[in-house]
Amino acid sequence: MRLLVAFFWVKQPGFVDAYYYYQAAQNWYDGHGFVINTVWNYQITAFNPTNPLSGYTHLAFDYWNPLASWLIIGSFALFGVSPFAASLPFMLCAALLPPLAFYAGKLAFGETQRRYSWVMAVATLFPGRYFLFWNAPDNFANFALLGLLCFITIHLGLNKDDRWLVVAGALSGLAYLCRSDGVLFTATLVLSFLWVRCKPQTGLQLWKPRWGILGLALIAALSVVTPWLWRNLLEFGTLFSPNSGKVFWLQNYNELFSHSLSLTPARYFEWGFGNIIISKLNALEIGAIILSVQGLFLLAPFFLLGIFLLNFKNRAYVPFLIHLTLLYFGMVLIFTEISLHGTLFHAAGSLIPYQAGAALFAIEWLVRKYCEWRKRPNRLKFFANGIAVPLLVVSIVLTLLVSASASSSWDKDFIYAVEINDWFKANSISNYAIIIGEPLSYYYATGNPAIALASDSVAANLEAARRFGANYLVLGIERYSALDALYKDKGGVIAAGLKLQFIAEYKGSQIYRIEPVN
Questions:
Q1: Which residues touch 258 (CB under 8 Å, ≥6 apart)?
Q2: pLDDT at 394 over 60
Q3: 36-44 mean pLDDT
Q4: What pTM did the predictor assign?
Q5: How far apart are CA 65 and CA 49, in angstroms?
Q6: Minimal CA–CA distance to 466: which of 515, 518, 420?
Q7: How confident is the model at residue 384 (pLDDT cuts 50, 70, 90)?
Q8: Neighbours of 272 (CB within 10 A)
Q9: Which are the contacts of 500, defined by CB distance < 8 A and separation ≥ 6?
Q10: 35 φ/ψ angles, rounded to the nearest 5 degrees
Q11: What is the mean pLDDT of residues 383-394?
Q12: H helices within 205-335, ranges in order?
């Protein structure tokens, strides 16, 4: 089924992150090393070309982590360079999720039951908004897979054989190589261990995992990530991605794509504690909605009730609940702006089976209470199945409908890039470097040098043009609000010794030539 989805719906990488991983993988596969040929962000990318006209090639992974590109490279080696080959490893990761979710259901709710296991498996087979994204060459499916494996192995290590904790440590290291927030799985391992070690012993669990095994688990996690951290130290002079700390100091998300703003703690706190507190409270509200609704649609209210009922009494849910807490508060309070614009959505895929299991638990609890109230205990099973099954059917139908709808815009950036490039070809313009809203897809579609549209001002874009040698700017219908006046007035701005000359309007986009001031 996922092969058909990729063939009909996911024909291109589709969005910024995926185009980045694809480009980095192709460059490495072609023998150029881990480099990127576009400037997608000015705050994150600490790159100043000595000769802008020679291109924008610079070191990759100065913000993101590399595992997605490694998987793509492996697929390229087997099947050649193509969008389908890039997506294949992630489709395979997604295909492993339902059987693992089925097994997680057995661990959480017992070997004899089957309904929980099936519900958890079906929820990962039809995971709402994730349905398309789990086929894309990005850290959606692989991160969800590693996260689910972490939950399972932590549970096994704390309740069956503590040597599983070493496996969990290695898996958490791999999760970090997917995404920086993968470190939360290592924190989940440690806190889950402490929870089991510190709670009073009962007749149900007299055995406890060993401290030495926890040490080995942390060594395993560190061993997995150390080569990559060493690479960062050699290439960038820091263990972690340089400039990535700027995301802490965003007052709004668009500032991440600015050219000239100083994203520093001093500027952030000058914003005022009142604004900071309001932004955090707003993030707490939106983050709660994202984590409760993502992938589950109508099951969200039951999930919230289910985790309240299950809490820490269900031992298989302990790693999940600890991770959910870390993810929620850590993301929305620390990475406030980026968490609400894709980070939480990226990071929460592994939660889906446990959310579905908690939802079914809540449904059955409500039905049990209803049957007790009506004094009809013999109707419990009938009513439980009668509610749970239709809800899953609705989730399946909504998953397919939402995916079909979203698929119509999946290739939007790619198609837009091709259309703009067609205009340049039609006007016999071949030697150009362009400022455009999404440079990664533009380079992917055309092979032409591209840098990002700056969000802070027209003057900032001209400064970027001077810095990187860009000679054309394309301003689309979808644009930053700071550029609305330019779109309305069509020029009239001089900065950095340059000016914009409006030359054409093409399918709603304005095209400007960037010229020196006489």
A1: 42, 43, 454, 455, 456, 460
A2: yes
A3: 94
A4: 0.95
A5: 23
A6: 515
A7: low
A8: 10
A9: 458, 462, 473, 486, 491, 492, 493, 512, 513, 514, 515
A10: -130, 160
A11: 69
A12: 211-236, 265-270, 273-293, 300-310, 318-334
Determine the pLDDT at residue 364: 85
pLDDT in tens, 276-309: 999 999 999 999 988 888 766 667 888 899 999 9
Instruction: Considering only residues 150 and 3, tell me which one the structure prediction assigns the higher pLDDT.
Output: 150
Nearest to 329 by CA among 128, 140, 181, 221: 181
How far is the C-alpha of 309 from the C-alpha of 295, rounded, in Å?
21
67-79 vs 164-178: helix crossing angle, rounded to 10: 90
Mean pLDDT of 27-36: 95
Average of per-residue pLDDT values in the chain: 90
Q: Closest Cα to residue 459, out of 483, 439, 478? A: 483
Contact criterion met (CB below 8 Å) for 86 and 69: no
- Cα angle, residue 492 at apex, residues 487 and 493 outer, rounded to 5°: 90
Please answer whether residues 360 and 306 qualify as being in contact, where contact means their C-beta atoms are separated by less than 8 angstroms.
Answer: yes
pLDDT in tens, 441-500: 999 999 999 999 999 999 999 999 999 999 999 999 889 999 999 999 997 788 889 999
Asked if residues 153 and 167 have their Cβ atoms less than 8 Å apart, the reply is: yes
Concatenated DSSP letters for 34-85? SEESSB--TTT-----SSGGG---EES-SSS-SHHHHHHHHHHHHH-SSHHH
Sign of CA dihedral 366, 98, 89, 325: positive
Q: What is the DSSP letter of 481?
A: G
Nearest to 483 by CA among 517, 446, 509: 509
Task: Choose between 71 and 288: higher pLDDT.
Answer: 71
Q: First CA to last CA across the chain, in angstroms?
A: 60
Q: pLDDT value at position 203?
A: 55
User: Could you tell me which of 384, 362, 387, 369 has the C-alpha nearest to residue 306?
Assistant: 362
Structure-token pair, residue 372 = 């007790």
Res 444: pLDDT? 96
Nearest of 299, 380, 318, 310 to residue 128 by alpha carbon: 299
Residue 136 is given by DSSP the state S
Residue appearing with tokens 């609890």: 365
Backbone Cα Rg of the chain? 25
- Taking CA atoms, 422 is separated from 215, 446, 476, in Å, by 58, 9, 15
d(CA 252, CA 243): 17
CA separation for the pair 354, 445 (Å, rounded): 39
CA–CA separation, 238 vs 228, rounded Å? 11
